[in-house]
Amino acid sequence: MPLIVQTINDFKIPRMSTKFLLATSLIARIAFLIFGIYQDKYMKLPYTDIDYFVFTDASRFVFQNESPYLRDTYRYTPLLAWLLLPCNYWFEFGYLIIKILQFNKKNTNLSLLWLWNPMVITISTRGSSESIMTIVVLLITYHAMHNNIIISGLLSGLAIHLKIYPVIYIPAILLTINSTQSFKQPITLDRLLFIISTVVSFGALTALMYYYYGWEYLNEAYLYHLIRLDHRHNFSIYNIALYFNSYTEKSSLKFFGDFLKLEKLAFIPQLSLSAVLIPLTLANINLPSCLFIQTFTFITFNKVITSQYFIWFLCFLPMYLSTTTISLKKGVILIIGWVLTQALWLYYGYKLEFLGEIGIFTFGIWSSSCIFFIWNCYMIGEFITDVREQGHTNVEVQGVTD
Amino acid sequence: MPIKRRTTYFIYPTIKEQSNDIHNLLNNEDEDGEDGDVFGRIEETSNYLNIKASFSKPLSKQEKFQIDVNELESTYNELFKMIGLLTIQYSPMSHGTPITKTIFNEYYNLKTQGLRINIAPQNVNSFKQYESVSDLTMNLLYKLMDIEQTPQLGMFFHNQWFRSQLFEQDVDLSILIKLWRSLIPNVSFPLTKSDLKTITSFELILNNDKIDFITYHETITNSNKISKNGDIFQEIGVFKIESLIIDDYDSCISGIRTSIPSKDENLTFIPTLLYLNSNHQSLNGFTSNHELIEPYGLHPTYKVSINNDTAYDYDFKPMDECKLLFNLDLPSNIILDKYQISNLVEFKSFNISNEMDLELPVYKINNSGSSILIHLNDSIIDEFKEFTIPLHLRYATPMFENDSFTSIIPTGNLYWSCPITSEEQNLISNSIFYERRLSIDSFEDNVKLYHIPNIGDNYLSIVQPTGNLSQGELIEFVTVICLISSLVYLIKKLLL
Predict the structure, then answer these.
(1) Domain-terminating residue out of B244, B277, B310
(2) Nearest Cα to A52, choosing from A43, A40, A34, A64?
(3) Same domain, B163 and B210
(4) What percent of chain A has pLDDT over 70?
(5) Which pLDDT band holds residue A23 (cuts at 50, 70, 90)?
(6) Which residues of chain B lie closer than 8 angstroms to A53, CB-CB?
(7) Quick one: which of A287, A303, A298 has its CA closest to A142?
(8) B290: which residues sit within 8 A by CB, 6+ positions away?
(9) How many C-alpha atoms does A343 have within 13 Å on its Cβ side?
(10) B332: distance to nearest CA of chain A, Å?
């Protein structure tokens, strides 16, 4: 299974058994969960994510045979509210579902980057739904690599139904199916099967939800994301510009004119890189690494970035690292830079959110998001070089073997 | 013009009197002379009546002008007849109002900082009409008061009527004169400039066919001269308050009253006993402090602490039927998250009027604000002595040359709501100070509210960081440069 990292070249850590890793990560999650309950009760800053309350409130409406969209700010597929129905009997059950789903994968030493990762543990035990997404995405990867075309298609439909962003994986997976197929004749039976199974799965789930909840579902789960107002501070480089534009309703830059807006153009760099150029260049070298870079790029160029989104690419990290050619020293520098630039933004974010400090929107929040963005782009560049290096090596090895 | 004017003066005890046993003062003259006495404050000449006041011996005054709706400017009287119930209240921001020092207990327990309009049309056939007439009237009133319409002035359904609130500081007492001149253009505004200087609050109360303009003058330090030949029928009363603390919820004050113009050369003063009981009383021995827990960032917590002065042995014991309630009005830049509040165990129940979107920034909200009424657990009074309400700030409007935005929250009302008998309600309703306002107890029959007064400011300020639009061009330009250069860098990495 490609999700299993078999060797660790740079780390001299004794190989740990799967049971040990699972047991320790389970203990870590239980400990975080218990601490979270304590923190919620006794500390000013709550541990449980606000979204968890949104999900459980929405599932309460479903439990009462009502629409989950009666819960303000619930803008997901009703499937998530359905999954949390048992919470109406036992509140903490939702956490367990998420954890059980997380554990439904094998691992070796590098998987501790996921299993022991405090950020991952925190986000999943805070009640975020992102962990559900990642397990579906990992299953897609697994089945795509094992040429289980229909299953990976069905799972892709589910993933896109849950959240729209996995749609960027479709081109990469398509390119790996019948990878030797000429660009001039791109249509093959397998590729068609993958697309059909994706469409069937997505269409069936969406139709089912539409059957139950009608236009309200389409509006809240999909259309809202096209017109949403991204004005609240977040890691994205777009954030402050969009906050200003949401008020003035036009761009601050004269050359954009009255109609052209930054938010309307934002998808161009984002999708051209993450959904087109990166898959075209990297998918057939190393699919998991390609998906990792695609996700990393998609988030970096997104109009909204919160910490929870990092889970989307962190789930690919163990697989990426298992094949990387980046040296340990350089890897450490990249990670330290990422953590520091993120911490800088968090420092200003805390000052704004919890201390209400004045005058830090521009030289504080925005400037640190620029630094974070630039560092992320530098990392993406390094990742691309790394995977392309792997491609050259593979060709050379293949050449030597031939 | 059939306008009735009633001017009521209240003499407070002198500092010396306060130090004496108040019960001994009932029939005794002030040791300093007669100024502490009702008659000592009145000077009558052939042309005017002088009510004496000074810095050391101030007075309080209430002016009430009652007009029949039929006498209003014809454009408005049909509309006002259709409305039937309307209350406009205005009070400026004030610091640390000493609640026990005022005789205007009923009004002071109900007032809000800023302007508040409540409308409950009585002669309409449907809710749609109820809403459209309210909307029409609200717009008309803002126009008459010469207040520019802004999105913040929208109305909302509060309890069973429509409400609009304005907390901005740029509204002042001139709105009273503008209202008068628009509604009653044939009669010049009757208050003098010196009267206007002493107004602390005013109300306009429409109750079916009568409109009352009421002004409250908390502290008057200059003598008031009243012409005996005025063209409006005027009743004047002067009453002595024996104690700053009125510790009986069912008490009377004594004084005299007279009316002008009079047929006699000398005015006739009639000794009068005023019944003070009302639907709103301050709960003796209890006060509250209202504050925001610092630092509040973008998520303020409104905290109410209750102080019980155990030195007083008051006889108020809440009955089982009494409910401890807290009412808080909030401007549109503050979010009440009903889902979060529903998890608070110290609240038995709550109701939010005019629920608003939980995410949008303030400049995308077309509302005047919201209001929450909370039924608290009794243990808050007996045991915890405090409670908190979590609030959230909407993103503020980005501004040029400014990095912050200040908003105002009028402090809330904390009170026991207790049932009373019909007989007791009849007594209260027959008091000359009784007004049928649209307020927190409207449409609730036979209840008496014991307020736990706030001893601090009547408003709380929230300073909120906001984006500076003057930097917008720089931000967007650098953002675009970063995006383009990164895109080029990554394409180069991918393709070359």
Answers:
(1) B277
(2) A40
(3) yes
(4) 81
(5) confident
(6) 339-340
(7) A287
(8) B302, B303, B304, B411, B412, B454, B456, B460
(9) 6
(10) 16
Judged on CB neighbours under 10 Å (0-12, 13-18, 19+), A309 is buried
Residues B137 and B285 in one domain: no
* Token pair 């000449």: residue: B45
Provide the token pair at A180.
């030797």
The Cα–Cα gap between A136 and B378 comes to 50
Torsion angle of the four alpha carbons B149, B153, B157, B160, in this order, in degrees rounded to the nearest 10: -90
Q: What angle do CA B303, B305, B307 make, to 5 degrees?
A: 170
> Same structural domain for residues B378 and B495?
no
Cα(B143)–Cα(B147) distance, integer angstroms:
6
pLDDT of residue A124: 67
- 8 Å CB contact of B473 and A253: yes
Which of B63, B102, B425, B73 lies closest to B277, judged by CA?
B425
Tell me: ipTM over 0.95.
no
Paired tokens of A351: 């000052």
Distance CA A162, CA A131 (A): 12
Nearest CA in chain A to B355: A72
- Same domain for B466 and B479, yes or no, is no
- If asked whether residues B369 and B228 sit together in one domain, one would say no
Of the candidates B419, B105, B459, the one whose C-alpha atom is nearest the C-alpha of residue B284 is B105
DSSP-derived secondary structure for A13-82: -PPPPHHHHHHHHHHHHHHHHHHHHHHHHH-SS--S-HHHHHHHHHHHHHHTTS-GGGSTT--S-HHHHH
Buried b (16+ CB within 10 A) or exposed e, B234-257: bebbbbbbbbeebeebeeebebbb
Stretch among A2-16, A33-47, A233-247, B338-352 having the lowest mean pLDDT: A2-16
Regarding predicted confidence, which is higher, A132 or A341? Answer: A341
Peptide bond into B190 cis (omega under 30): no
Of residues B87, B12, B25, the one with CA closest to residue B53: B12
**Quick one: pLDDT at residue A247?**
93
Helix crossing, B127-144 with B74-83: angle to 10°?
140
Query: Would you state the pLDDT for residue B150?
Result: 58
A343: its two tokens: 């911490």
What percent of chain B lies above the pLDDT cut of 70? 84
pTM: predicted TM-score of the whole model, two decimal places:
0.81
The verdict on B272 and B297 lying in the same domain is no
Q: Which residues contact B101 (CB under 8 A, 6 or more apart)?
A: B12, B244
Check B472 against A241: CB less than 8 A apart.
yes
Q: What six digits make up the tokens of A227?
A: 């017109």
Per the prediction, chain A carries an average pLDDT of 83
Where exactly are the structural domains of chain A? 3-47+107-245+255-400
B470 CB within 8 Å of a chain A CB? no
Q: Given B243, B277, B311, which residue is the final one in a domain? A: B277
What's residue A391's pLDDT? 78
Report d(CA B414, CA B109) in Å as an integer: 10
Q: List phi, psi (to 5°) of B268.
A: -100, 125
Residues from chain A that touch B494, judged by Cβ atoms under 8 A, are 273, 277-278, 281-282, 384
Q: Residues 13..72 of B with a Cβ closer than 8 Å to A: which?
A: none
For residue A394, name the pLDDT band (cuts at 50, 70, 90).
low
Alpha helices in B348-406 (DSSP H): 379
The residue range of the domain holding B381 is 281-470
- Closest residue to B465, CB basis, from A247, A269, A356: A356
Lowest mean pLDDT among A194-203, A263-272, B87-96, B113-122: B87-96
pLDDT tens for A165-205 read 999 999 999 999 998 888 888 899 999 999 999 999 999 99
Total domains, chain B: 3
The two tokens of residue A207 are: 């139709």
Where does the pLDDT of residue B100 fall: very low under 50, low under 70, confident under 90, or very high at 90 and above? very low
B477 touches chain A (CB under 8 A): yes
